[in-house]
Every structure is written in C-alpha cells, then in structure tokens.
Amino acid sequence: MELSQCLAKHGFKITFVNAESNHQLIKNASTSSTSSDQINLVSISDDAVKLSSDAVLRVMPSKVEELIEQLNDKISCIIADQSIGWALEIAERKGIRRAAFCPAAAAQLVLGFSIPKLIQDGIIDDYGTPTKKEIVRISPTMPAMNTANFVWACLGNMESQKNIFKLMLNNNKSIKLTDWLLCNSIYDLEPAAFNLAPQIIPIGPVSEINRQRLNSTGNFWAEDSTCLRWLDQQKQQSVIYVAFGSFAVFDPKQFQELALGLELSKKPFLWVVRPDIKSTNNAFLEEFRERVGNLGKIVSWAPQKKVLAHKSVSCFVSHCGWNSTMEGVSNGVPFLCWPYFADQFFNQRYICDIWKIGLELDRNENGIIVHLEIKNKVEQVLGNGEFRKRALDLKELVVNSVEEGGSSYQNFKRFIEWMRE
C-alpha cells in the first residue's frame, strides 16, 4: 500500500488486489478513504486463501487471472509481491509489463536463490527440511543463519513448509520473467546481499519515500491516536514501545511475563495489545492496568510511524518484521528483539550482529522469555549509549538514500521513468 501511494503521487492509477478478508479488515480500519480516484481497492474470493496453504498455488492464480480479464481499464503494468511469482507468469502470458516487489530484506531473496546450492551441499533435503540444526552463512559478510530458522522451515507445520518451499522454488523461475526486481531496502544496510544478487534494485525504505504521509496504510485495526498525547507527556527518550505486528501470538504465561517485565523495568511503556490477544488475556490485563496506572499506556493498535518518530521513545521491543525493522531504523531507535516466525529471526541477526543497534531477548529452558530477562535487557540497551549512537548513524544512511540524489531515490526515479515509457 505504501508503494501504491508512492506511485499514485506520480499520477499512476492503481488497482490494489487483496484477498477478501484482508480487504475488509483494511477498509474497516481505515479512518480516511484509502480508495480514491488514484487507488482502487478490489478483492478476490477468500476461497482462494482460507482452505490451506497450497491454495496459494492451486486456486489464487486463476482467481487473479479472471480479475485481470474483468478489468475494463487497460493494464500497463503488473506489480506483484515477488513471493507470488505466478502473477508474473500471468502478466508474461498476457504481454503485460511486469515488476516484482520484495517487501522483505534483500537477504531473503538471496536465501531463496541459494536453495539449489543448499540442497547440493546437503544442508537441506529436497523438501527444504534441514538435515541437521547448524549455523550457516551464505556469504562471509552476511548474518549467520540457523537452519532451523530458515523462512520456510520455522512455520511449525510440515504441509505449510512444503508448500512455501515449493512456492519459493517456483519463484526462482518466474522472477526471471520480470523487468524489475524491486526491494524495500537500501544498499548501505545490506551491501553483501546486493553484491551477491545485483539484479535486486533497492528503492526503500518505501515508508521514507512516503514520509510526508505519516498516516499508516494497510492496517488491519483502527489506530488509537490517544497514545500520541500520552507520549507528549513523557520525558525525552524514556518510553519503551512494545509492538509485535499483525500475527504474533502469546500463550497466557508468556503474556504475563512480558507484562511483569515491563512493570519491573519501572520505565514508562506504550504497549500494543491487539484485540485478538486482549480477548484471551482480558482479566489479567485489567488488573495489570490498575497496578501500573499512568506508568504504561495500552492500546489496541498504534500509529507506529508517528510513535517511532516521537522524541520520547527510547527503544522498540519488536517482533522484527521487516516493515517494523525499517521504521525503527529510519527513526534511529534501538531494538529489543522478540522474533516470532519466518524472516523475523534473520532480521534479528541484522539488528544484533551486523548493525549492532539492539539486543536479543533469550528464552529459558521452557522457551519462555521471563520478566527478569526483559528487565535486564531493557537496562542494558538503555544504559549503553552506543546502541542509540549506531541507530542514529543508520538513520542518517536511510535518510540520505531517499533524498534527492540518494541511491534509493535514483532507483525509484528510474523505475517511474520506465513506467511512463
């Protein structure tokens, strides 16, 4: 959606295609109309996505192709998430120009491209299952990867693993059909990945290209802007911001340990507790609210870009999704890393090992991040000014990349010019 808005600003008409359930969530959560003369939101039947993970391969392509045929307006270009390469195949069959967009790190694309060698070296089998738990590096200057945390191997479901792995193999073929392979990153954050795969063109962070539009887009829940007024009342660089994206879930024990850790830190905190999480922890949460009083602010969803840009925020307890990672980096905010699944474990390695702007939260023998671990890591990341200093240095790199003359700015400009040809 951020990319669509960037393109709309340059005068392009966008048809934004989503699954029906997501389409409705986004429309219901929007306080202002995202759909306009420039961006038209349309949906395809949920039958294509709700049955099982292999529906992405079996059903969605025909649904999308039907939609393309139904559209009256002439389609000059199809831009597809690179993870659904079949959309590029449809565009190629119909003679429509095409571009792929990777909303994740460039390193995740490189990992996908490396699958044949990983199989050849015996690191994974033909279904993507790691032959043993080990640490590998695709390149000496890229973060180390735990094979158990490969994006397709940490889903906790063998059927999903096989289907996602198959999709990634197919994408390696379909990606060759694209005219552009765009990525929501910058050269300076991932030089090793871009050197290994120079066909990947960084245009990110897209949220920074679109920075004058600080209103979030594509949310599944309505934002609670009262947290901004609460932030205005807090001291500079004092608030712990806690948010885990749209999908991460917690069992009651882990949820309570997180709450107790925040309380024990004795720092003001802004905690995003989604409606689906709140409903299963409501009794504990109400008691917790009364106990901490004004020390903490709990909201169902936050205007994250505005929160991270706020002067009172000191650190970001995050699931390390790439969008959240980019938004934190773009605002010079240190991290406490709490990955949940997929590429989030690898993003954590960038944050902790390569960029050195955050710390990992360690789990105990039962897989729980306990309250004392949260308290101690909060103290470490806030007590060491080097995390903030390095985060601000990265922020400068990001800002320079999207300003006129910067690498992402120039790449996006070239893409716009190609679209207009």
TrEMBL record:
GO terms for molecular function: quercetin 3-O-glucosyltransferase activity; quercetin 7-O-glucosyltransferase activity. The keyword Ribonucleoprotein does not apply. It holds the Pfam family UDPGT. InterPro entries: UDP_glucos_trans (IPR002213). SUPFAM superfamilies: UDP-Glycosyltransferase/glycogen phosphorylase (SSF53756). The keyword Cell division does not apply. Keywords: Transferase. Belongs to the UDP-glycosyltransferase family. This is Anthocyanidin 3-O-glucosyltransferase. It comes from Jatropha curcas (Barbados nut).
